[in-house]
Amino acid sequence: MSWIGSAVPRLEDATLLTGTGKFVDDIHLPNALQAAVVRSTFAHARITGIDAAAALAMPGVYAVFTHADLPEALKTAMPLLVPNPAIRYPVTQHVLASDAVHFVGEAVALVVADDRYIAEDAAELVFVDYEPLPAAGDFREALRPGAAVAHETREDNVAAEFTVGYGETKAAFAEAAHVFGETLFQHRGAGHAMECRTMLASYEAVTDTLTIWANTQSPHQLRDVYCRMTGQADNRVRVIAPDTGGGFGSKVQAYPEHLAIAAAAIALGRPVKYIEDRREHFTATHQERDQFYDVEIAVDGDGRIKAVRGSLIHDCGAHLAWGIITPFISATTLPGPYVVPAYQMKVTGVFTNKVATTPVRGAGRPQAVFAMERLLDRVARELSLDPAEVRRRNFVPADAMPYKVGLTFRDGSPVIYDSGDYPACQEKALTLAGYDAFKERQAAARTEGRHIGIGTASYVEGTGLGPFEGVSVQIMPAGNIIAQTGAAAQGQGHQTMFAQIIADRLGVAPDAVTVIGGETTGVAYGIGTFASRVTANAGPSAHLAAGNLRDKMIKIAAHLLEAAEDDLDLADGRVFVKGVPEMGKSFGEIAVFANGMPGFSMPDGITPGLDDTSYFTPERSTYANGAHVAEVEVDIETGRVSILRYVTAHDCGTIINPMMVEGQVAGGVVHGIGNALFEWMRYDEAAQPVTVNFGEYLLPLATETPAIEQTHMETPTPLNPLGVKGAGEGGTIPAAAAIVSAIENALTPLDVKIAQVPVTPEALLDLIADAEAAR
Amino acid sequence: MAERLEITLTVNGESVTREVPVRLTLADFLRHELELTGTHLGCEHGVCGACTILLDGKTARSCLLLAVQTDGMSVDTVEGMADNGALTPLQQAFIDNHGLQCGFCTPGMLATLTELLDTIPDPSEQEVREWLSGNICRCTGYQGIVDAALDAAKALRGESPAGA
Description:
Chain A is α+β, with helices and mostly antiparallel strands. Chain A has three domains: 13-133 and 194-246 and 251-284, Alpha-Beta Complex (Aldehyde Oxidoreductase, domain 3), CATH 3.90.1170.50; 287-465 and 619-774, Aldehyde oxidase/xanthine dehydrogenase, molybdopterin binding domain (Aldehyde Oxidoreductase, domain 4), CATH 3.30.365; 471-614, Aldehyde oxidase/xanthine dehydrogenase, molybdopterin binding domain (Aldehyde Oxidoreductase, domain 4), CATH 3.30.365. Chain A has 18 helices and 31 strands. In chain A, strands 3-5-1-13-10-11-12 form a seven-stranded mixed sheet. In chain A, helix 8 runs parallel beside helix 9 and helix 9 runs parallel beside helix 17 (735-746). By secondary structure, chain B is α+β, with helices and mostly antiparallel strands. Chain B is 32% helix and 16% strand. Chain B has a five-stranded mixed sheet with strand order 2-1-5-3-4, covered by helices on one side. The chains are: A alpha+beta, B alpha+beta. Chains A and B meet through helix 1 and helix 16 of A and helix 1, helix 2, helix 3, helix 4 and helix 5 of B.
């Protein structure tokens, strides 16, 4: 039997359900101190002085670190990890603010004390003198001539400019039967994992070794940033990501606080822990989604797309931690699953005095899909076509695979959709949703005075981005199997996924495989958990490593048993002669032999040790796809939107564990529901954040969330040996588009048009009133 | 230094006496004094529900309580649920229904659902969702948690074996 494809219960669950997991703040090191961060209260200001005397005088306070107190190597700005020639001003954050602050929440000083209570008291006694400067708030305002600049050293707020596209856009627009334009605005949200950022640094002077426990999505990247700034040898910096309470992109980055507590632990010779609170998370942890689109679509008389063009303005926040990855993904995602013969998108990244934006679940794709799907809904409305039919007429057909879009992705490779059947996927979703019969239900509801509506959206998602993610598999002399990888898990179920893949190759049950993830000591190099990339990068690495071990065990057993390799098989932790199971060697016996017996020669062609480390390197991204259908009811008196049904059809190639894929999709959809209806990180015009708790910033609750009804296709990718694509973000990507389409459909009699998300009840009531006034 | 008081309370069935700073929250007392780290802090302002525990059998936010307020009371945390390693029907139902991903909100979910199933042995899906509306989960989309609660209710009523 194959474990791949089976809904194996998760190996992670038992410890988490009994309260015996190990999250960073659960680690109690002897002599550990606690840190609190003094954060900027201004969006933009010069720092003219810092007085820490009162804080330092408090009993239980050990140190206050400011920029001046950091080692020289950590006084420079942090590295720009993903450069791009389109970046005009590659500004990144300092570990602790030097002479100016550029957003509310920027780290200015680190207070270290006996416990967090004292550290927070002392942080209030660190007096920072600020000379306030005009702040760049709204990112569109920030582009106007004479707007306040986010960085004093600049004349304007343009961080980057570039254009992507292909084909004869101008000619296509000139010749098209119809041209429709939309301006679309999507607001900031955040990852808001339930566990905020946590970190603990411990330095051992005897071995000059630094250990950082952090709930990071990229342990190797954090190590590499530290080593890049300090010159420390990478085997003297160990980063461990233990159990982690969700990520969603926000924990990918190496943050200034990681480096600050490392410096503090080294300076004080004691472990230093920093546990971010939720208010800090609202101001200092990276966010995403603020984008403004001005887009046009050209179609023929039948609604077939001739070209799409437009401009996209992206709020970068104050710093470019990860360059301009997010708007780049947006611009290259927009054509989606449709044949778009010509396409041009001008992108402008704008600095504002807000915390940086870096990828959050979906990474620029939800906005791009929203833009494209809004355009197609407009085409449907103008040409009196069914919205699903407009999409059907424009899908890339299955027989066009592999399909070259004409764009270059952010890794420099061409955007080529490797496999998928987009029309069939849409059809599955429509069938499950009962789409064709909806008109009757809607008519019946309208006679009762109820406003129900249906909307659909389709998407293509570049997943499994390279360059690699390594996995090492080792068989111990005790006979047990240990797999290690740098890829850190934040709840996805990596342990179970790797164990299923390895179990298939080694003929054991998944629970016979111990998986240790998220440690830099596991494999030498690593990239991180983002871009729905771990199953598609590290999954094949696990498959290859376990396969190499399987071959090696058969070779060794053939030698020990004096049998032909072809006559041997593996099962239950043994290699044995087919048909004669008692004639065999256990994995442990083979490991003991492979590890070397004093005085015994290694057989021909057998290298020492029973371990293998593989780094699968995909040649380019693989494209997952899906279609969603949302059915909503709108209360036009209160503006409340209730989601009555939500249906997804999802294709992520080969499915390793269907239960976990459904969990990823369902969680992703609910994140998208948040983006569509609730989540809005608001700032005032001076860039002061005004939503800094869960009363002001709303996340979807169980009562606002329907059951997610799912159906799946499995179109394997030819780009890796397992045929797997990524599954972590597809649920989020088209959700806002589908929900907004459904709301508009519900309000067709009122002629309400929606051009921005989230659609809050207040916003919807305003739109209804505007539509009434216009009639 | 802050004032300290001696308190005695029952935690997971065992009597505990400690001298604690009066401003120490119950959550920090459990996590850092007793090293019962299964109770998690997600927002520290009483909204997310991750820190929910049972106080004299009723759910309470341990981030909004001071340890000294619980003097003489009984606190039950996630660590006290399983009996010698044997999972409760509710815990087992979470495994069977994929009711958790990162597991950070899970102890609070278990506390809330324990009280629900004590109060309403045969809840409807809507009732489960309303009871869960004080606990935020960012990973699962709630469906697995709702299914787990309904499944556990069945098992506790003797209508199906746990894990069936």
